[in-house]
Amino acid sequence: MMEEALIVASLLTDGGFNATVDNYGHTSINPFYIPALGGIRISIPTRQLKAAREYVRNMKDTAAVRVEEALQEPIIYVVPKRIRWRAWAMVLISLDPLIILAGMALIWKHRTSDDEKHMTILERP
């Protein structure tokens, strides 16, 4: 979280805005203070706020184009192969309690029918 705030603050500073990261000293010593301090805030003067938002939005929208221009070749996005066994493993893990309950019901049904047979044998004269 702190790294992202520092990146955005440096982007704004590079764009000519007066951006600072609040609570940097506290959170760099102990990152568990971040929720107690209300998160990480980037402060910017009010008169620069609208222009800074537009600048960040523009930088985000044109990031891929600027990277392609810097590399002077198109970006190729690699999509990882689907690993189906993980999906099936998750399905089986989520169904595990139902499988256990069904097995217990079958065992219980078998057990009660065996008990009834024994009871009828004992009741015969």
Helix content: 55-70%
Overall morphology? elongated
Write the H/E string, N to C.
HEHEHHH
| Distance linking N and C termini | 81 Å
What's the β-strand tally?
A: 2
Rg, Å, rounded: 32 Å
Structural class: mainly alpha
Order of strands in the sheet with the most strands?
A: 1-2
Taking all residues together, what is the mean pLDDT? 80
Low-confidence stretches: none
Largest sheet properties: 2 strands, antiparallel
Number of helices: 5
Oligomeric state as shown: single chain
Which percent band covers the strand fraction?
under 5%
Describe the structure.
The protein is mainly α. It has helices at 2-14, 24-29, 49-61, 63-71, 84-123, and strands spanning 20-21, 42-43. The mean pLDDT is 80.
